[in-house]
Amino acid sequence: MAGAFVLASTLTACGGEGGGANVLNWYINPDSGGQAEIAARCSEQSNGAYTITVSQLPRDSPAQREQLVRRLAANDSSIDLMSLDPPYIPEFAQAGFLAPVPDDVAERTSEDVVQSAIDGATWDDELVTIPFWANTQLLWYRNSVVEAAGLDMSQPVTWDQLIQAAQDQDVILSAQGRRSESLVVWLNALIESAGGSIIQENSPEDPTGIEFGLTTEAADRAAEVMNAVATSGVVGPAFSTSSEDTSATEFEGEQGGFQVNWPFVWPRALAGVEAGTLDESLPDDIGWALYPRVNEDEETAPPYGGINIGIGAFSENVDAAFEAAECIVSEENQAYYFITNGNPASKASVYDDPEVLEVFPMADTIRESLELAAPRPQTPYYSEVSGALQREYHPPSSVGPQTGEQAQALIEAVLAGEQLL
Amino acid sequence: MTQTTLPPTEKTQPVSAPARGLSDRSRAERRLGWLLAGPAFLVMLLVTAYPILQAVYYSLFNYRLTDPENRSFTGLSNYAVVLTDGLWWQSLWVTVVITVVTVAVELVLGFALALVMAKALSAIRPALRAAILIPYAVITVVSAFAWAFAFDIDTGFVNNWFAWLPGVSETTDWFGGQWSSIAVVCLAEIWKTTPFISLLLLAGLAQVPEVLQEAAKVDGATWWQRMRRVTLPNMKAAIMVALLFRTLDAFRIFDAIFIMTAGANNTETVSFLAYRQTIARVEIGLGSAVSVLLFLSVVLIAFSFIKGFRVDLSQARGDK
To answer: ipTM score here?
Structure first.
């Protein structure tokens, strides 16, 4: 009896958190404290209309999604605002987990926003989340290496050129070969850069109606490049387990030459110099350019990432939440977030901010990259698609002309409920 | 204690129950038994039986958490999907390999540690026990991270320290292949749970009557003979219970796989497969089917231990 009593009282205690009428709960992805600061600033500016408290989600984005999906499936009303990774937005929107964005809010918050961020915040031709910050990968190179290799970085470069240069100079070309979301980021950028798409024709309601583009010429070309990089001998020794952090470490090391990575590598290198773990001359040796091309005569399509703000469909303060979201994504807050946390803004005008340019001299390249960036396949079944791609395209050294077909067959079987993942 | 009036020799004889009905005394005892165990039994029903039954129920449906409206009854088709999928059998194989390897090594190591603990000088015994128990007190996720970092190609020291071993070099990518990954997973598991098995075996060692040992010594038995003929036979129940508990535990391995490989290079175990269907894919029906099959495997292991090796769980407590 005592056990049951204790159990019951614990359950009541858990359910008791509701908070005041104007307390907004913002579920954030872990960062360097920027979102908490923005929450405090917006709370203050609202003059008591609302107070935002932040709750931190797990570190990696699939785990963030898992937690939010489970809570929202149980109609959790404690979720007012949430920081969402764009690939999962269609799933949330399709399941009815997001409060519809009022037209006037949509209009105001998509003004002056880079195209890829709008695409990533949209599902079924409607803006379903508020674009907050937008991320993209650049090609980072060591000036000394490209000089020695005679590469003209003012012109677009291709993956083939990079492999060649890395082989000639005996340096490492770093990418993310680990079986995780980062592999899909790379694969998608390669396919999009080759002019294809992982999903060619969408089908929101019926997963078996989705038309995939993994057996196209573009996908074959992407597989070819992926395999060429993995088997070129210029990747790090643990390429099949290499993450963004591994890439950054390799690039900072003695053998570093090229890497494709998010802009966090810049503040990371500066911090390393400051802490004395990296050589002082390193920052001057780092250069940046647009993501490498797959085909010489075809524009690149860099990866797109970032965070958009979703409003919980079961929130009791939807109006206040939208008001707060508008404050969170203001130009001022985006600039602050960019400068202090290294997360690039989705509003184009932020890139003209002199303070931003001082901290991120590559801001112009980031904006340019964001205009070209292509989101990962947008589908409510993204975890299935991504999981199946990770299974088939890993390790990258095993990728060949047959991989696309196998991956497509696996995704179709998984979506039809005929196979495990 | 007044009711144990039978002479010890007759204890092994089956005592037939009274022809029919219960005596007032046993009825009262049974009632008291239920009253004492009842609350715990109710809580167990609530926290164990209910989720299991719910999982069995869900496993009969095609049910996606994000699309509850389209939930449909599909009978046993989820089980058919799981059992005809190569991935299930592959995961089962990996799970069995990890279970057999870790439990076998742990048993030997655990027994050695138990002997050390039993024989250690009483002055250092508490410190020794604490030292041996520390790995078991470490949270599994933390231990998995520690081992993952140790074997990691960037942060790890293992490649550096053991580069003199054949097959190990500065650039050995432990998590890049199936067998090397499983080896690290096994190592982490063994390090972490050997203390558990050695603690159970220590309890068993303590039960071996000292008089038997002394008698064997007087008869001139060597250490090895005493171990084989006196210690081990008297510890059989404790060994079996330790084995059973560890096997059940090892079969459900999840944390180490999740942290170290996330299922890459065919290192998925059955629990990981259940996680991916239920939590990552939010396919509650399919995931529940995998979970139910995992549960049945565990039941089968427990059953075959208890029947096959005639493990009597009550013997481990010392009631002979």
So the answer is: 0.85
